[in-house]
Design a protein that fits this description.
This protein is of the alpha/beta class and 206 residues long. Helix content is 43%, strand content 19%.
């Protein structure tokens, strides 16, 4: 059973890599990853800002060559799993249902990390932006893995909210240093610290 699961993961990984590479070629006039060497082999909890559905694709492509374990993406349950067809498509891309409220989402993320998968989450919870939600802190508090902050820019122009047709543009991914939750740090404090790193430190980097 383990061999079959491993073969299935390998086939899905190769298929997704091909699809992502094609999407990058079509969408991006320029595609740049800064400080790629900071990406650990995995497993790791990856947090990023969120402005476009294109974020998931460009980040998975950036991580695929570095993260050596399965990568799971936390997707809003009420959006990506609102019917069977969309849910089937989402699962094919490695997305798992993450409710916007409650403990079910953080619990599923911790379970994925415990199974030695890396997890990508957008702590804002929506492409509309906003503050980082404390759920990311609850995930980190229950897992020994480090947290990798990433800032993505340009995807909001490539695939704006409400648009189904991409426009060619420049996408830059800035990778931060892995961080860990401090012993006395609350989930709210950790989420706020990650927000400062992603939005201010990485977001303002030249």
């Amino acid at each position: 059973m383990r061999k079959i699961r491993g073969l299935r993961n390998t086939v899905r990984r190769l298929w997704c890599l091909t699809a992502w590479r094609l999407a990058i070629a079509i969408w991006c006039r320029r595609y740049e990853i800064r400080n790629r060497q900071r990406i650990p082999a995995g497993p790791v909890l990856i947090v990023a800002n969120h402005a476009s559905h294109a974020d998931t694709v460009v980040l998975q492509f950036a991580l695929a060559s570095s993260v050596r374990c399965p990568l799971r993406v936390a997707g809003a349950e009420d959006y990506w799993f609102r019917n069977r067809v969309i849910g089937w498509f989402a699962r094919g891309l490695g997305v798992f249902p993450f409710p916007r409220r409650g403990e079910a989402g953080p619990r599923r993320a911790r379970r994925a990390l415990a199974s030695r998968s890396s997890v990508l989450i957008f702590p804002q919870g929506t492409r509309a932006g906003g503050r980082f939600r404390p759920g990311v802190g609850r995930i980190a508090a229950g897992s020994p893995t480090s947290v990798l902050p990433i800032h993505v820019s340009g995807t909001d122009s490539v695939l704006p909210r409400g648009s189904f047709l991409p426009r060619r543009g420049d996408v830059v991914i800035r990778v931060g240093e892995p961080v860990s939750m401090e012993p006395l740090e609350t989930p709210e404090e950790f989420a706020a610290r990650l927000e400062r790193i992603v939005q201010m430190d990485l977001g303002s980097a030249a």
